[in-house]
Amino acid sequence: MQFIATFDLPNFLDTLVSLFVAFVLGTAIGAERQYRQRSAGLRTNVLVAVGAAVFVDLAMRLEGSGGAVRVIANVVTGIGFLGAGVIMKEGLNVRGLNTAATLWASAAVGACAGTDRIAEAILATLLILACNTLLRPLVNRINRIPIDEGSSEAIYQVRVVAGNDHVEDIRKALFAELKRAKYPVADIDLDTSDEDATEIVATLVSSSADTDELNSAIANLRTLKGVTHAGWEVSTSD
Length: 238
Description:
The N and C termini lie far apart (56 Å). Helix 3 crosses helix 4. This protein has 238 residues and is of the alpha+beta class. The protein has helices at residues 2-6, 9-35, 42-84, 97-114, 118-133, 136-143, 167-180, 211-222, and strands at 88-90, 93-95, 154-163, 185-191, 197-204, 227-236. The chain has 8 helices and 6 strands. This is Protein MgtC. Residues 156-232 form the MgtC-like C-terminal domain.
């Protein structure tokens, strides 16, 4: 049997240690994700860490460090596709980026374990856990700081609701008003879900804007015939 010819007890024990370390460290990372009810929880992070360790360890045994480097490069690419599956876009907001990044980092931990860099794998795990736990209070504190619309990078949208008979005229007027205020339009959408009215949503090119100028433009749009509502909103781009 090929197994008998290729089996080497010291190498097997080395692999056992590498995969066991990847399992334990992946469990530590995944447990924190599972506790916070993330889409990629305990089992997913363990599988990513152990899987990366298996591929890298196998490459190390077959082709040495050169083969391991090539496999690690492909693991990074493969985890990128897996991480994309947990990222969801809801309107202007994107969810799942942190979960995808954690999966990517779990693969890095597994790769370290697969190359017998146990200390590095443990260090990476501690830093990942610190990022997902100890930094949360700092993130919450920053999020409570009011946004300075005049200096922050953000997405600005102007929303105008008009009767269906006046949509084209209002759309042209909206373009003209924003152009006059030197805020060119990057995109414009029409929401026709209402049978009697249409919402015109203009997304601005600018990443910063003056609130007084936007309020002035909105005030002018509200005076137009057929306009039932006009306003603007801002959301962060990150």
